[in-house]
Design goal:
This protein has about 170 residues and is α+β, with helices and mostly antiparallel strands. The chain is about 20% helix and about 35% strand. The mean pLDDT is about 90. Bound molecules: zinc ion (2 copies).
Length: about 170
């Protein structure tokens, strides 16, 4: 999204309302965006001090970290920045700022970064998802296998088993 800042820079108005969609083409890790992201907010000028605040409604598909079932996620991401015309600040490396270039504000990159940063890194279909059995691979939510009971051995015995395993090699 390229925001035309001229109405504010020329003093014509103090606020520009924004309502647009952002399309993220690529999947990120196991998150895919099937629909464009709706972004709403405004750029406001208060006595020469400009701020940009946006809210993005993000809907995405991902999979459960334990059982791999596909699930839908939803998040509201807030994006707040100070706005300055480029070359008017001493320190342009400041992450709190976005800069106006030739009368326009290009925010796609930093907005995408913010969205990706704030999405949860791990999703679960439910808090008590039992996940896949590490032994037979069955979904334990649907089909509780009996691998668990076979696997449960005395930890002291397990230690011994490991010892023997090591000796064999
Ligand atoms: Zn799950
Ligand atoms: Zn199993």
């Amino acid at each position: 999204m390229l925001i035309d800042m001229m109405p504010i820079l020329s003093g014509e108005c103090d606020k520009i309302d924004l309502d647009f969609t952002l399309t993220l083409e690529d999947d990120i890790d196991d998150i895919s965006f099937r629909e464009p992201i709706r972004v709403c907010g405004a750029v406001v000028n208060m006595a020469g001090y400009m701020t940009l605040s946006l809210e993005a409604q993000v809907r995405y598909m991902t999979s459960c970290a334990r059982c791999l079932k596909e699930l839908e996620g939803e998040a509201i991401i807030r994006y707040d920045k100070n706005v300055a015309v480029e070359k008017t600040l001493e320190d342009e490396e400041n992450d709190d700022y976005v800069f106006v270039h030739q009368g326009k504000l290009d925010i796609d990159e930093t907005l995408c970064e913010q969205i990706l940063l704030e999405l949860p890194a791990k999703h679960l279909c439910s808090e008590d998802c039992k996940g896949l059995c590490p032994v037979c691979g069955k979904d334990r939510n649907i089909d509780p296998c009996d691998c668990e009971s076979k696997k449960e051995i005395d930890p002291r015995l397990a230690k011994l088993a490991n010892l023997f395993g090591d000796n064999k090699e």
